[in-house]
Amino acid sequence: MQLTDIDFQRLKQAKQLLENPGLAAKITDAIGKPIEQGFALLPKTVSNGIGKVTQMALTKAVDAALFTLKDGANLHSSDKWHKFGVALSGGVGGFFGLSALAIELPISTTIMLRSIADIARSEGEQLSDLATKMACLEVFAFGGQSLDDDQAETGYFAVRTVLANSIAESAQYVATKGFTKEAAPMMVKIVTIVAERFGVQVTQKVAAQAVPAIGAAGGAIINTLFIDHFQDMARGHFVVRGLERKYGEQQIRECYEAIQ
């Protein structure tokens, strides 16, 4: 079945969102300073601990947000309210500095995950569906181009392919065992894989906040860019998933890759 003009335009817009320049470029444009300056200022203890903090933040977000949201017939997602919440937490984090990362990041990540699920719901996804829950978590692995990523794994479908086996295995196990202690190791596995890629974006965010004179206002701005980035990833992802349900995964992938 051939894509309608409307659906083709939606796919084209989704690709523009998913293949955008990435968080680092957006932050640099906003604060007017190369993000590399911030990397040089990061203490080694912070750089080495970001991976652990990121995984903890995702784990807490899954427990607090993903499995507490309900299905609904929302036609529009509440993107602005979620941005406000993340900006507020970023402002507080910016005021207290890098020492507040372990407190601020789980809060920000939980709000972002609720926003991602809200966008999924607005695109016709059923939040009670395990595949939708996994797809929401998957969004954190989509980060755009990054010097820290293997270039072979930065494209949208390339990242989905990398995650596919682990997500399918986890989903099957959880579907059988439910969200019990027995299923916990499988959830830890998928969270760990996603956290590795999400951690790249977290490091860029923290590096930007390490630049002198950023402060509370800068922390709010950077967090707004942070959630805006993942809202774009979520919107593109769930548009693609909706079109896949309508036309089939193979056809949508071929059309997506053919778009210049």
From TrEMBL:
Pfam family, one: EcsC
InterPro entries listed in its UniProt record: EcsC (IPR024787)
Superkingdom in the source lineage: Bacteria
Name of the featured protein: EcsC family protein
Organism: Shewanella aestuarii
